[in-house]
Amino acid sequence: MGAGLLEGSSVALVHEWFSATGGSEQVFMAIAGLLPHAARYVLWAEHDAGAEGLGLRESWLARTPLRRSKALALPMMPLVWRTLDRRATFDVVISSSHAFAHTVRLGSHEATRYLSYVHSPARYVWSPSFDGRGANPVLRAPRKLLQVVDSRLNRHVHSYAANSREVQARIRRFWRRDAVVVNPPVAVEYFAAAPDAQRAQPRDYLLGVGRWIPYKNFDLMIAIADEAGLPLMIAGSGPEEARLRKLAAAARVPVTFEVRPSKERLRELYWGARALLFPAHEDFGIIPVEAQACGTPVIGLGRGGLLETVVDGETGYLVDSLKPAPHVEAVRRLPRLSTQRRMQEQAARFSPERFAHRMREWVTDATSG
User: Fold this and answer.
1) In this model, does residue 134 exceed pLDDT 60?
2) What are the DSSP E strand ranges found in the chain?
3) How many CB atoms lie within 10 A of CB 258?
4) What does pTM read for this prediction?
5) How far is CA 46 from the centre of its chain?
6) In b/e form, how buried is each residue of 225-235, taking b as 16+ CB within 10 angstroms?
7) Beta-ladder partners of 300
8) Which one, of 188, 71, 45, 178, lies nearest residue 116 by Cα?
9) What are the angstrom distances between the C-alpha of 40 and each of 58, 251, 254, 262?
10) Pick from 125, 126, 130, 83: which is nearest to 103 by CA?
11) Residue 312, SS3 per DSSP
């Protein structure tokens, strides 16, 4: 797949920290697939990330206790990226950034071409209202300083790509830079190609998928299912589990938890769901695309990436509210939506092949001349 792309050039790929289930890691590995000869750098790889054999080079931060706390490590990250490997120089450096990876230096501005694929300017720093983790008291004091540092240390980047129009607008607003849009790859063919037994499920429950953290609003999903009178399946894992189980126990409908389901089990859950509930403001959102690949409509928040991935009134409903009632009304209007085939056609717009084509275009244009 990657034959010919930057062939003959020395290339480094840079990512923040490498964890087991993150969508940004999937994008990083897709980029690595296009550039198999590239060196791969990360701040650290989490112990359960399955990174063995990937050839990841960890930063010196990985040898400190800070690797156990992203919040405490965040103020150190710009320094780490500027001192990553003083001996190495590359013709092209491509960063996969959702914090400070885009500030990395592995060669001079004149001799090295710097490209950055941005999942979002650091939400902890620039958009704490989107993500409650940004309200961490440890970050409150240095946030303004980190914004200044982030803006000043990205001037060497020659070209940006954003994972969505939402992120493209943030790059323009926060950094005053332009970016092309290259949507992330989603394994749409895998999710569409379910066995007949999965396709024949009765679709008699609502589904929530993702990390169990506050801004994903799983508590709202429980309230929606409760008012709609439909069972709810919650798939994923995270620090909110105990609180969500307590809320689930008080609901009038069955709420079932699937902890860390396999990819195969997740596909089965999508195919059995009447709709995916996704009331979160996401940068892009891979999960709603996976659901649509299974012919499952999405009821989500009408903000952020869902404005690009869900066709309101055709493949789902977008609700600009964090109150249960409008979402419940959308559940009742599900029979009016388009066919499963239309949902799968929408999902196909975000295939790995489409991503590879757009990435090749961007990298080629950004490194020529």
Assistant:
1) no
2) 11-15, 39-42, 56-58, 92-97, 113-118, 159-162, 180-181, 205-211, 232-237, 255-259, 273-278, 298-301, 316-319
3) 18
4) 0.90
5) 17
6) bbbbebbbbbb
7) 278, 318
8) 178
9) 9, 47, 45, 27
10) 83
11) strand
